[in-house]
Amino acid sequence: MQKFTDNLAEEATLINQVKNGKEDALKKLYIRYQPLVNSIINKYYLRCYDKQDWEQDALFICYQSAISYVDGKGKFASYYKTRLTNHAKTLVRYENAYRRRALTQSISIEKAVASGLRPLQVNQVSPSEVPLNDQLAEIIDHLSDLEGLALLVVLGIVPQEEVLANLKIEKKSLIRAKSRLAQKMRYHLL
To answer: What region holds the RNA polymerase sigma-70 region domain (predicted)?
Structure first.
């Protein structure tokens, strides 16, 4: 019990020192609530915020909380946690509102038709500069014999059992060849 009252007295002293402009008291008070700050950081994810941004905001909110804290109106820990949580929720709301901005600027198809707007003409041409059949021919030229047979198996032209029996290989080798084939296709086509 004595230790708890000592902690409260030390906390009150630190808060008063922060109100009087002592920077080292603010650092001590902030370090005291570092686990609370870490729990808030882990609870709320923001894409553009890293740990340093969170810690800077938490230190600033700790300072503001110490300045505005009124002794006897509850615990400082609860007050600080509430302010820090509210700040995190505000940041999350702001980020979500930014994402929804495009939705607020859109209109329904019915409204567009009623207004006389026409849909944009979408170009149906493949984005690649080289025609697909030329790319496939180049890929097939660079395949090993086993990878070529794996392609025929994948396309359903040749049964897998026939390839395994004719080449006298294990199923594992054919699976690896299919994997290499997929990698080469992805590399060349994407």
So the answer is: 29-95
Residues of the domain holding 66? 2-104
CB 29 within 8 A of CB 66: yes
Q: How far apart are CA 15 and CA 65, in angstroms?
A: 9
Rounded to an integer, what distance in angstroms lies between the CA atom of residue 123 and that of residue 97? Answer: 31
Would 162 be classed as within a structural domain? yes
**Residue-by-residue DSSP string for 16-83:** HHHHTT-HHHHHHHHHHTHHHHHHHHHH---TT--HHHHHHHHHHHHHHHHHH--TTSS-HHHHHHHH
pLDDT bucket at 126, cuts 50 / 70 / 90: very low
The pTM assigned to this predicted structure is 0.51
What is the spatial distance between Cα 24 and Cα 4, in angstroms, rounded to a whole number? 22
Q: Is residue 118 part of a domain?
A: no
